[in-house]
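Lay summary. Proteins are chains of building blocks that fold into shapes, and those shapes determine what they do. In this project we predict the shape from the chain. Here is one chain we studied, written as its sequence of building blocks.
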Amino acid sequence: MANNLFPRSSGVLLHPTSLPGRYGIGDLGDWAYKFVDWLEAAGQSVWQILPLGPTSYGDSPYQTLSAFAGNSNLISLDKLVEDGWLTKADVAVVPNFPQKAVDFGAVIQYHNHMLDLAYKRFEVEASIEKRNIFESWCTQNSHWLDDFALFVALKDHHNGRPWVEWPEGEALRKRDDLDTARETHAERINQHRFRQWLFHQQWHELKDYAGAKKIRFIGDLPIFVAHDSSDVWANRDKFYLDEKGNPTVIAGVPPDYFSKTGQRWGNPLYRWDVMQKDGYRWWIRRVKASLALVDIVRIDHFRGFEAYWEIPASEETAVNGEWIPGPGEDFFSAVRQGLGGELPIIAEDLGVITEGVEKLRDDFGLPGMKVLQFAWSDPKNPFLPHNHVPNSVVYSGTHDNNTTVGWWRSEVDEGMRRFIQAYLDRDVREANWTMIRLGMMSVGHTFVAPMQDILGIGAEGRMNTPGVESGNWSWRITPDALEHPGKDGLAFLTKLYQRRPDQQEKEYGDTATKANEE
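And here is the predicted shape, written in a compact code that computers can read:
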């Protein structure tokens, strides 16, 4: 049921990397603030994002170098000019980056160069007060920052190679070798500390701005972490690894309707028995760190807490695995105690879900997900609007789906089309607005639409295709997107279905009504 934690509301899914901007990737600068203003004007109260961590090979925000650190490519270079760490001359000439997609290789190279320049100027020109603020922040975050900065400095030194391929003393964290590394790479370590300070500073400024406009962030917390991360490197005892640090068993999902061989994700699995002994301390710190950045977190692959698919690391597919019980109720009780109250968590409960998963979700009052693109099989489908429950978050689609227009054009067969039209008792003229309207009218307390659906973009706007290694995560909106009439349509439906009752009454004229006629 709706409550203070989850009032009736609606919002938009758009990762910050997808914002416009002249530096090749969306960032935490002017366009992020313009998007907050756009959300407010459209009557929205939620901005949902993907994980904010530093990406690595493949550029996926779900395989990051740290569960605590921020992606330094999101640091606004214009804000660094305002702060005096860059000059206008530094950013006067910018590579000819594409507007509609992120060219990650070129972007990372350019941003790293600019952030190095900013650090050098900070070292030379920063006041004692600024240095004290920086050092104080580093001390407050030392429980993850020290390991991360050393990890990334060593990764830089070893040309990006995974930590299991480093010299044994560094890979297995022998004390003398780490002491030597800290001394040898002291400047590079401090550069990475500086970048994290900048990211967190800029993020909290944006979050405060959004909060003042009553717009909340929904973040994303993947259940598993990447093997090549500071998290695993610094906490080897908490994962199933061999004596050299390689996983012995890995995560994935078994064969199903979508894949005859299942999905072999490759993430190392947690030793939950070890984590339980200290009250899941690392996990509680992780959840708290996430909730310092966002207001609500969506836990990806929630079912893994009830039972997870364990695959021997030697297997090339996910076929030969087995279900292993997860930490279940004991874990969430510890997290709730650690947070000191309610659990501001959304359970990603998609896929084949058991009664045990549903019980774990419901026992802790966590809202599940209802994705409208998955609804159109038969009248009993739980994703159909008449089967929704109040304690749920409804989506037209997710970052892993095709856009609704792309889905309608290429994935909806004739049988589904007839079912949808019978359900609505009319023809579908604009599939994206049909799904947005159905989501808005749902009893589910929260509705979220990907920005692509509001703009009516086809498959070219898809953010991610699961199982495809390249070409993902790069989609961006162009500046004119914020002038699209979809904003008025969204505002009209939000008012009509009372998803922003605190919003001052506004008059929506013929344009809004026309945008939503079907």
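What the prediction tells us: The radius of gyration is 23 Å.
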